[in-house]
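Q&A FORM
Asked by: J.P.
Topic: structure of Valine dehydrogenase

PROVIDED:
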Amino acid sequence: MTDVTDGVLHTLFRSEQGGHEQVVLCQDRASGLKAVIAIHSTALGPALGGTRFYPYATEEEAVADALNLARGMSYKNAMAGLDHGGGKAVIIGDPERIKTEDLLLAYGRFVASLGGRYVTACDVGTYVADMDVVARANPWTTGRSPENGGAGDSSVLTAYGVFQGMRASAQHLWGDPTLRGRTVGVAGVGKVGHYLVEHLLQDGARVVITDVRTEAVRRITDAHPEVAVAADTEALIRTEGLDIYAPCALGGALDDHSVPVLTAKVVCGAANNQLAHPGVEKDLADRGILYAPDYVVNAGGVIQVADELHGFDFDRCKAKASKIFDTTLAIFARAKEDGIPPAAAADRIAEQRMAEARAEALPGGGAQR
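REPLIED BY: S.T.
REPLY: Here is the structure written out as tokens.
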């Protein structure tokens, strides 16, 4: 355990964080590990969510991110129809500088100490090879390589699910589930974004990209010279004629600065926690911008890693990820019926499923979970 500062305590107990079941602050001095494991809910089953490795400026920032991401995983898993609650872990530090085998093994031991309440996987800064190492110390690890009993890279199905969410958005807004002839701006073409670009091009979309890493941009443009490049995200969101904006990097892309200048008619991307704060979803709706809730459309990856626990079958996972299309349409319909933004409609549906699961788990409430 790390020393707990007043700032960390304040972050842990802020009411808006959503009533997490458990938060573990981890430290292994020998390896340099500092990590936070947050379990938001186990109402539907063991918490499932990835491990983010990132150079947070402060421990408070790391705790806040873990809490937000874990809560988002509860909603994501509920909307994906999985028998899993939500959890997330963050490792504090620059993975290019401090990531070692000893550090990953120490992290795995902390996860294992939770006895299966939290199942981990990849996220920003962690990869399949890392999960292979973590799995040596922790049996509750997914996102491993096929050689080590896993399903491999979950970015493939994450991108596929986002593409299905875009198709549903097009169906809802324009009456046709295709991106052909539409202009789509993708911010972040790394793990997930570059697969998403492939889907869009195959469907006949015009694509504009941006990324802080020139090598990520070059990988796309070398293969597809027809793809346009924006100078940065600010330039991308102001692009004239943009139909869909796909935030595929870190969270908080939709805020008081970006929403007023956004030219797109739809936002649908792979990044987690795209809404910078409560109220942004209403700002989008007031501007007539259709928002496909991030945790719904980016659930393809978690569908894959959850399946890994039962013997991975890619075709089965892809079929389940295809249902993101129907789920997204159902959310838009619920939003229209209730007169609320799609983000609020998705929350209501997810909360209802979790509440029903908790009720069933009570004595006399139905089947025990």
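FOLLOW-UP: The chain has two domains: 6-71+86-148, 155-352.
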